[in-house]
Write the structure tokens for this entry.
Amino acid sequence: MDFRFDIIAHYIPVLLRGTAFTIGVSIVSIILGSVLGLGIGFGKMAPKAYFRWPFHCYINFFRGTPLYVQILIVHFGVIPAFYGSTNVLMTSFVALSLNSAAYSAEIFRAGIQSIDPGQREAAVSLGMTQFQAMRFIILPQAVKRMVPAFGNEFIVLVKDSSLLALIAAPEIMYWSNTMKGQYLRIWEPYLTAALIYFILTYSLSKLLNYIERKV
Amino acid sequence: MEPMISVRHLHKSFGTHKVLTDISVDIHIREVVVVIGPSGSGKSTFLRCLNLLEQPQEGDIIIEGTSLMAKTTRINDIRTELGMVFQQFNLFPHKKVIENIMLAPVRVRKWPVGQARQKALELLDKVGLREKADVYPASLSGGQAQRVAIARALAMEPKIMLFDEPTSALDPEMVGEVLAVMKDLAREGMTMVVVTHEMGFAREVGDRVLFMEQGVVVEEGDPEQLFGHPAHERTQAFLSKVL
Ligand SMILES: Nc1ncnc2c1ncn2[C@@H]1O[C@H](COP(=O)(O)OP(=O)(O)OP(=O)(O)O)[C@@H](O)[C@H]1O
Ligand SMILES: [Mg+2]
């Protein structure tokens, strides 16, 4: 079997642009997802059951259905409803952020609930408000414990962003599909895509190990 | 004289489980009140109601004339007047010893950092741990951790100190150093409510002892009377087991 490096070389510029798209959409989604997730996580810890319920449903919906389906719903349903027409870029950010928010919410909730209740009690008995206790005592300790789970979520997000090829978002998988279509070759496009994802996730996990050691 | 803390007809349940039944107690300024009783009798719950870590269902707690149950009472302000020391210390593990002590004065009392640090160092001197100012709590022994926890509570300059079995989690050889700090405080005139199994401390330092069982105050009196001539059978039975 021959392996044609020349067609890979030919596609390198677009694949690099695809990689940039994948990285960009993953970073934005992990950030938006964790901000949103923090709110949803707190919502799910609310004392009143009826208040928790919508957050509970949100998390269960996004964790319990395939991202594939979520992308299609956002692309053909949600974005047109708000924006008037489909938009690949919007779908990419919105679908991944909403999905990531559900997982982030659970990471925040688990992290916060893993802190000994005595910490909050000590803080409020010194006169701190609930907010100050969260801000100065609970979150700093919880965030440390969340780092591995967030790292994991980020890696999953990078890989799952490949599903955006479905709606022709110009990311890595989309371009390797194009490459396959143009040359009717299997190994070159898909092995190249696999290698790029591997390099991304492997560097990310190294970086995360470093951060874990730091905090 | 008006009591510093007046607890009136306090009732507390967890779900259907009744833990405190009709507790009424007055605590006066400079008084050291020791609460004793078997495990599960509601001693911690009683103490935790005093700074509303637990919300009672009925009755009232009046601290220096302010009702804790009144809707207008700002509970955070009340809590700054009550120092609390826990069995498990509950130091903040991500903060150095001195930061543990300075945090609330800076964030709650809005003291300048310099003033808070000054106060923290004085308190560390008082509990004999100045050289530990810049270490993290994880490197302290249990006795040292509890002394830091006491300093942390004192940094807010509370009018009343609440202790929930402050020596129960300690190795026996460390109990003395913590009790010594508490005795100093009592001598200086701090108003204290102390839940403890240390009967020697209760006798020596307590002005009044409350014996609780199954959520009621069975008997109260000065230590000589309560330990020497307990009036109730249940008090006698308990004391015969622990003394
Ligand atoms: N948060 C809670 N939820 C439900 N039940 C509780 C809670 N806290 C305490 N209880 C129950 O209330 C009762 C009194 O508990 P409390 O901790 O006040 O007793 P205690 O006298 O301090 O005992 P110990 O000497 O073991 O500390 C116990 O039966 C306990 O199981
Ligand atoms: Mg207790």
About this structure: The radius of gyration of chain A is 21 Å. The mean pLDDT of chain A is 95. The interface with chain B takes residues 116, 118-119, 121-129, 132, 136-137, 140-141, 144 of chain A (CB under 8 Å).
